[in-house]
Amino acid sequence: MSFLWYLTVIPLLGVLIFIHELGHFLVARLCGVGVEVFSLGFGKRLMGTRRGITDYRLSAIPLGGFVKMVGEDPNQAEELEDTTLSFTHKPVYQRAAIVLAGPVSNLLLAPVLFFFLLLSYGALLPDTTVGGVMKGKPAALAGIEKGDVVTAVNGKAVSNMLEMAALVQSESPRPLTLTIKRKDKTLDLTMTAQAETETDILGDPRTVYRVGIAGGAGEPVQVNYGLIGSARRAVGQTWELCSITIEILGRIFTGRLSAKEALGGPIRITQMAGKYAQSGIFDFFSLMGMLSVSLGLINLFPMPILDGGHLVFFLYEAVVRRPMALRAREISMQVGMMLLIMLMVYVIYIDILNTFFSG
Length: 359
Description:
Blueprint: H1 3-30, E1 35-51, E2 54-69, H2 74-79, H3 92-121, E3 123-125, E4 132-133, H4 138-142, E5 149-153, E6 156-157, H5 161-171, E7 176-182, E8 185-191, E9 194-199, E10 205-210, E11 213-214, E12 221-223, H6 226-254, H7 259-262, H8 266-279, H9 281-299, H10 307-320, H11 326-356
Antiparallel strand pairs: 1-2, 3-12, 4-11, 5-6, 5-7, 7-8, 9-10
Helix pairs in contact: 1-3, 1-8, 1-9, 3-6, 3-9, 3-10, 6-9, 8-9
């Protein structure tokens, strides 16, 4: 593995795995369940320390982690004399809470990261100085010229192109009055935005309204969102990421989207981590937030080996008032493991295709 792997991917995945397992660990302890092992990584134990009954360790394979709880294995639970620390002997709602805590921790990490990034850095956005006007478009027909500065749309002040584009979209298809500064003059120019069809991030057509201005000819505008604004935007970004991720996964399973285009494995993550790390702290931690959302949602899938699969077992137990038969659980876990291995092999195959045979 390259030095880039250790510098970018290991910290990136390490934080996501740690937060996930910490969620399981904290709620397990809150519910009175004993934890035997808290491991970052799989396989051979490299180093660690023991506190009470818990072995906190780093293991050889840095692509996951696990929390081993007392009585988690039903066979072990039957042999326990003292069941007060046993996972299996806890009420079903507590066991469900322990399992759910991992994915929820990842989903909560994303808005926390986004909040501190927005609070610390804000955003650097293109200003409203007109860098070019497209011939035959509404702005050109209304008389807007290169070098004009747009200060308002329908009387609502704008300081950057993002605000301007949003107002043009929300105020259309009604006529728009753009207030501009041209040297020492202030002018109000009226036009009607032109409707255009484009594809969104999921490839769906959508209607957008444009006036035909290329902005950002002046100095970029530093936007600071403040405490409340940063929190609101962080939650909004996380919600949008969740919606997009669920939509993409749904389209993959229904065959409406190619897995080759949407899925990525360790090679792609390494490439993205290196690229984002070179771009700076903001981009690197933004990637961490995006991957944290994906990790949280994927772990909620009702696949037996994942947290979502365990939640299905607990739902069954809550409905029928008895645990699923041990043999049925064992078979489903084996099938789930086989499916997970097949999925891992498939995404690595996709990575290789996209990396070396993209032509």
